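Page header: ASSEMBLY MODEL / two components / 410 residues total.
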Amino acid sequence: MESLQDRNSRVYRITYETFSKFSNNLNRCKSLDEVSQVSERFLKYLLNFHLFRISINQDASYLVYCQCNSQGQFEHLQPENLLPYEVKILEDNIPIRTEKIPALLSDKISETNLESPFLWCWSFKKMDVDFTVSLVADENKAFEVGDIEMLKLVSDSFQAKFQEIYLKEQLDHKNKSLLQALDVIKNQNTRIKQIVENQKQTIADRTSEVVEKNEKLLKISALNAHNVREPLSRIQGIVQLFDVFDDETCRLELLPKLKQSSEEMDEVLQKVIKMATTELDQLKAKEL
Amino acid sequence: MSTIILVDDQPIANFITRKLLEVEGYNKDILDFTNPEEALTYLEDKQNTLIFLDLNMPEMNGWEFLDYLKLKSQQHKIIILTSSTSTVDQNKAKEYDSVIKYVEKPLNKDKFRELQPLLEKL
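Prediction written out in full:
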């Protein structure tokens, strides 16, 4: 005949082996659906309950997992849409054990005949994350204070997994956003490169134009300077001869040549002015 | 002293050079040409003639004139007399052994005096 101690020891061992399997399976879950499947499979062996509910704060909303009649269900709720007792326990952190079961929960378990049901609820905080765990049990599936240790283990496991999935989703979302941003940056870089290339080409074209214009102007300038200098040097040459010749020679020989050279210089200057004006007009026309 | 040749397409330029030469005492055997080709024809059977040569001439420029003399191996002494102030022209002139001086117009007394030692050697 098995003693009570032996029985308790065996129950304890079986429970923790089950928890070990639950925990291992939960660890391998990649999504909330998989978590639900593991929970539906193992939770009933770990705790006595008709309904199990865990609500975990994730940023501005709560992820709520509710398991009843071996069926799990997830939903996201705003804090104000949590059940009233959950709102209360999040405020005062005082564990709840009450016979008053909200209709929203009792409706889910109405198929079973409850005998003296109680609603239990606890609030926890782990790594700055608030969460509540509640369950409904009755005489048929009696939850006792001694089961709280297991409930805490299960709750921690759920919380850790939900947080992991949540963070992974956030990370995926951010990665996706980053990839999109990277695409945008790549596109912008391509556009910037094109603009820079266009600018380079424009600058090269403009520089080439300016160099060409400058060369042309320098050539014209040099040519004009030379053309002007020819008659000017003759005028200077004649003027210096005035010092060495008598008045008659100056009047008869030098003056006509001086006049001729000054006329030639005037002619050259007229050509220079005309050429410069034409060039200037052409440059202005190009700029327009 | 042998004949001095003046080659410039502008008669007035030749006139000024001639007058300056005359003032300085070189009043014999000065021939001037406004057509470089005629000057070359004259120089065909001459050697060691002093030539005042302009560079910018429409029919045949001074460089072509010098090249022709070089081609014909004619030995003359050339004084380039030009209104060009270009250093390119000045450097190019140094490439010709026959060019003994590069003078910028207008030729005046001071410049002429610098030429006198060269003229006296001839």
